[in-house]
TrEMBL record:
UniProt keyword list: Kelch repeat
InterPro entries, per the entry: Kelch-BTB_domain-containing, Kelch-typ_b-propeller, Kelch_1
Transmembrane segments: none
Statement: the UniProt record of this protein carries the keyword rRNA processing: no
One Pfam short name: Kelch_1
Name of the protein in question: Uncharacterized protein
Amino acid sequence: MYNPTKFEWKDLAPLNTGRALFGVTIHDDQIYVVTGVTDSGLTSSVEVYDIATNKWSEFTEFPQERSSLNLVSMGGFLYAIGGFAMMPTETSEEPVPTEMTDIWRYDESEQSWTGILREIRYAEGASILSAQLNTLRLKKL
């Protein structure tokens, strides 16, 4: 973790479940890591890092195994946007990597993820600017 006031990097405790291609954000002074790819494939697990204790703990699982989602914190909520999941196609039940075009919100009072938007256009991205959630929508060529 980088400390910009001290201009130095600090090693963190390792995740309980090693992964790549995950969503990550800081929310309420903790680091959240959502979904990703493990040695076994896609995962729905979520871990939260407590900066004060240098420890990771398990968190409410995401509703679907995914990779490459965007994760942002805004207005007391976590938002998970897009990513990739293994889904059957119209012509086959064999799952293939599929770009997801939805948005989920984590509500701490209910301790659950809720789908809030089923479909964004294509090729999602997310950022927070002046307390407004912006999603980039591109049309397929």
